[in-house]
Specification:
Shape of chain B: globular
Low-confidence stretches of chain B: none
Radius of gyration of chain B: 23 Å
Strand content of chain A: 5-15%
Order of helices and strands of chain B: HHHHHHHHHHHHHH
Number of strands of chain A: 13
Oligomer: heterodimer
Structural class of chain A: alpha/beta
Helix content of chain B: over 70%
Radius of gyration of chain A: 23 Å
Distance between the termini of chain A: 11 Å
Largest sheet of chain B: none
Number of helices of chain A: 21
Helix content of chain A: 40-55%
Distance between the termini of chain B: 40 Å
Number of strands of chain B: 0
Number of helices of chain B: 14
């Protein structure tokens, strides 16, 4: 709650008149039932800063030109460019210019630098885990304001995706590029090892059995190739409905400590350690695609990677360079306890609140446009990200894609299937990178033979320190 | 015997140093699936030369290279000029607070660029230079290191030459350009190469003061290429080779000057 009050104070100082004028609109939007399905307590309209709708109409000159910072490259960039051209051509009021900031990390660095002295973008694409940082930067107009004021049918978007970007009843960003880890496996290897390729493993125990079977029968050298990644712990805890950090994953209150050194967390690390000890698991670097190539080359029978890589994998396999491979895609196997779901991954669109009102409105219009059914369908088809608008999946763009390659459907279904709670909503941590570093080094030591129980509790202690340091600097 | 041993050690070192470079070049010519193959390939039987043109055109490296040449070139020229003037003053002129000023010059070498990053950015934005060549060039037109290096070189000019020049009626300007600069050529050459190298390899500064392709430099372009999808990983390698090539050529051409110039004045100061 103190956070919301702070927003109001800042905005009522800078734009008191717009704030008053919009209060009425916001109330009206609420009466219409906007934003009612958030699960968590709904913020009072008066707590939100105002969305400057109508500012473009009053702008001194038109079109209003805005800048969007993104981190897309190649095919993804081309698709974004095409959608931007479509937007620019569709109306006379707003012109959007794209700026490629090369990577999520560099976008954030540049954003922090720009906070100091003007030249903020009007719309910025930021990576999932940096949400708490963006909120703490106190430079964001929550899209919640505009969703309500503009009566945007946000319920068309997958609720769990909105939930990721909603904190204590306020949605801060509009999700855009969303992906999810899924299981990739070689159907041919499954068949040869006497496994049913139509029944891929759904739990970690089944993964273990299948991996051992493929290895024992000599079909593949390793059962499964896994990147050294924090995904395993983050996703499998979320799938079991267990928190990653305390205070409801940082969503009820700011997180003060990690929570992953739990019975479930220990079981996950135990599983990884045993798989590695038995030699059925091949570890892979976190960056790059060596794990995918291990499956393609027949070295491993399975791997876990983001759903966003499927398009490229399909393309590569179609080139016919790989024999004895038929790619299967399945939901991510989990601890098997139920009670949660995979965490939304990817990036979202934030509207900085320091720019002129007409630019903020223009940014909102463009962000809204990008998530509308047809655009979201084209975006998903062009990039491999999940079509997060549930109306997109009824359009031919997506139905054709799914008919041709059913694997594209898996991540979408997986997101819909998950239960909505604070565990599956994902953790909110200011220094997420610091916590992740602790886990990655713990995983590395486990794969080199260290005791998993101790490695995980060490990682928890190190993660606690990272959180405490950040909270001492920024939190409040 | 000792020669054999020495050469063996040198060859081993050379292989270790050259291996990553060779692999980068080979990978730029392999097909993506060959890059990932185990064991790795060490010879491209079907060289993919088009990865270079893809990097230049689709990867926009042609544009970024031009910008890098303009920026690094102008920075080099400006840095050498300011360094010559400053070094001459510190070496041959007498003026109040000379020692103090020289220490202040040296002190700027101790402050790392990261410390002044944000404040420099604010200055550049306030001057209205955001997203322009000026933002990339002006902050680097003078360097404490250049003044220091050339001062040390200028101090090695013998007193006799100064006296002789004075007898011939040379003023400061003529003495500087006719005598000192030609004598300090190795040091000036080294400074030029060094400035160019640093300017060419800059990444963070160009990233945060620019936002359009028309002024962005090759290192940013390279980073964009790095995010390429796996079906074009060889393009990333090709881009790396392209971006490193000018530096490589420069080093080969000026190797002697670089080594001689940076050690010049080492024994006399």
């Amino acid at each position: 709650m103190p956070r919301l009050v702070r927003h109001r104070r800042r905005l009522s100082l800078s734009r008191p008149i717009a704030g008053l004028a919009l209060a009425g609109l916001v109330l009206a939007a609420c009466g219409g039932g906007g934003g009612g399905s958030k699960g968590s307590p709904t913020a009072k309209p008066s707590d939100l800063p105002a969305c400057p709708l109508g500012a473009i109409a009053k702008a001194a000159s038109k079109p209003v030109t805005i800048t969007m910072w993104h981190s897309m490259s190649m095919a993804n960039e081309a698709t974004l460019k095409a959608l931007t051209d479509r937007f620019n051509a569709s109306q006379p009021d707003v012109r959007v210019q794209l700026v490629n900031e090369t990577s999520y990390d560099d976008t954030l660095t540049n954003y922090k630098a720009a906070l100091g002295g003007g030249t903020l973008p009007d719309l910025v694409q930021i990576q999932d885990v940096d949400q708490q940082l963006m909120i703490d930067s106190k430079s964001i107009l929550p899209v919640e304001s505009c969703i309500r004021a503009d009566k945007y049918p946000v319920d068309d978007l997958i609720p769990r995706v909105n939930a990721y970007y909603t904190v204590r009843g306020v949605q801060y960003a509009l999700p855009f590029s969303v992906s999810n880890p899924v299981l990739y496996y070689n159907r041919v290897a499954f068949q040869k090892a006497g496994l049913d390729p139509d029944k891929p493993p759904t739990t970690l125990d089944e993964v273990r059995t299948a991996a051992q079977k493929m290895q024992a029968s000599g079909v593949t050298k390793y059962g499964i190739a896994l990147k050294i990644e924090t995904w395993h712990l983050e996703e499998w805890l979320a799938m079991a409905g267990q928190p990653f950090v305390n205070n409801g994953n940082g969503r009820d209150k700011r997180a003060t400590k990690t929570a992953f050194d739990s019975a479930q967390g220990q079981a996950i690390f135990q599983w990884l350690a045993q798989m590695s000890k038995d030699g059925v698991l091949q570890t892979m670097p976190a960056s790059g695609y060596d794990n995918m190539f291990a499956v393609a080359n027949g070295v491993a029978g399975m791997t876990v990677d983001t759903s966003a890589v499927l398009g490229t994998a399909v393309q590569l396999l179609a080139s016919g360079q790989y024999k004895d491979v038929s790619l299967g895609t399945a939901k991510l196997p989990g601890p098997g306890t139920g009670g949660g779901g995979t965490v939304v991954a990817g990036s979202a669109l934030y509207i900085p609140d320091k720019n002129a009102p007409e630019k903020q409105e223009a940014a909102w219009r463009f962000a809204r446009f990008l998530t509308e059914p047809q655009q979201m369908a084209d975006w998903a088809a062009g990039t491999g990200y999940i079509p997060i608008n549930e109306k997109s999946v009824q359009l031919p763009t997506i139905t054709d894609l799914w008919a041709k390659t059913p694997g594209f459907r898996v991540a979408y279904d997986q997101l819909l299937a998950g239960q909505e709670n604070t565990a599956s909503a994902g953790a909110l941590i200011g220094d997420f990178e610091g916590v992740r570093r602790a886990i990655v080094s713990a995983e590395e030591s486990v794969f080199q033979g260290a005791d998993p129980a101790k490695a995980l509790s060490d990682a928890a202690a190190q993660g606690d320190r990272a959180i405490a340091d950040y909270e001492a600097r920024v939190g409040g | 015997m000792r020669t054999t041993l020495r050469y063996t050690v040198l060859v081993v070192m050379a292989v270790i140093v050259l291996f990553p470079i060779v692999v980068t070049i080979i990978n730029s010519l392999l097909k993506p699936d060959q890059i990932a193959a185990r064991p790795p390939r060490l010879f491209p039987d079907d060289p993919q030369w088009h990865s270079y043109s893809t990097a230049m055109d689709a990867g926009k490296l042609r544009l970024y290279l031009r910008n890098s040449f303009v920026v690094a070139g102008l920075i080099t020229v400006a840095q050498v000029m300011t360094a010559v003037f400053a070094a001459y003053a510190f070496a041959f002129l007498r003026f109040p607070l000379k020692r103090t000023l020289f220490v202040v010059f040296l002190a700027t070498l101790m402050v790392s660029g990261e410390v002044t990053l944000i404040i420099n950015r604010q200055t550049v934005v306030a001057l209205g230079w955001f997203n322009s060549y000026a933002a990339l060039i002006v902050p680097f037109m003078a360097s404490g290191f250049g003044a220091f290096l050339l001062r040390q070189a200028f101090l090695t000019v013998p007193q006799d030459l100064r006296d002789a020049a004075a007898l011939d009626g040379y003023g400061h300007w003529r003495f500087m350009f006719r005598v000192v600069v030609p004598l300090a050529r190795p040091a000036i050459g080294a400074l030029s190469v060094f400035s160019f190298l640093l300017a060419w390899n800059q990444y963070l500064w160009p990233l945060i003061v620019t936002e359009s392709d028309s002024v962005r430099t090759v290192q940013i372009g390279l980073r964009q290429l790095r995010a390429t999808s796996i079906d074009q990983i060889n393009v990333t390698f090709a881009g790396t080779v392209i971006a490193a090539l000018p530096i490589f050529v420069l080093l080969v051409l000026f190797q002697k000057q670089l080594v001689r110039g940076l050690t010049a004045g080492a024994v006399k100061g």
